[in-house]
Amino acid sequence: MTELVVQEGGLTLAEISAKLGASSTSTGPSIPELKMNYDGENGPMGSFYLKTGHDQAYATDGVRFRAFSNHIQFQHWGEDNSLINKSLLIVNEKKEARDQKGGFRCNVPTYDQSIAMSLEEKKKFEGRDKYRVVRGLISYTGKTSDGREITFENQPCVLKSKRKNFGPFYYDIVSKLPEGKKLWDFENILSKETKTNTHGKKYYIMHFAPQFGSPLEMDQITYDSLSYIDNLISVENADIEKHFKEAHTNNVENAQADRIDTVIQALDADVA
Question: By three-state DSSP, how is residue 164 classified?
Fold first, then answer.
């Protein structure tokens, strides 16, 4: 491996690895989101594509993904597809998932709480989910809806997976990481698994085939990319922490005011 130039005040590779949740021992600007296609009018159903907003190219095979980070984030989305609340990006659920509204986990129930709920109770939490957020580089050649061929090579992207797609990244890659290896030491070949739910509707599971036998070099470009992603995550978490503290303080003050008001009302009732 070539000697890396660590920028002044920058993190070492080990420090970056711990913050990004990328090692085998690890329990701002926007980039395109890596997604799967569920609309047959665009491209092949279940195909992979980058949500760029234009020239979206779809591919079912030959998609290579080099992951740089692995985080968990709780998010709350409104009916109009607007983001209402989100938590810190955390490397595992032992960390406290403080959120923008001054609470924790965006009030997403735990697994045990969820299975104990009735359907009516679960409806109260619609729009709230636990996501796996993975940032990295994607490479593939795909076709647009009008048949044009486009190639992406080491394109930065972010993958946000929930529910049935939350687990495969961990089970396919993280749980199998050889000792001492990091996520960015190899690429993964993406594939889809097609399933059918109880209502007869098809859905897709994204799977990852890690290429452990074809290690990639840690060069200066890769190190700089890791530093850039680490900065993105740090900026996002700092902003969430700021909102958490402001909202949490307001929540405490409002609760205290409510308690005082209750006491005053009780005293007034006694006097009357």
Answer: helix
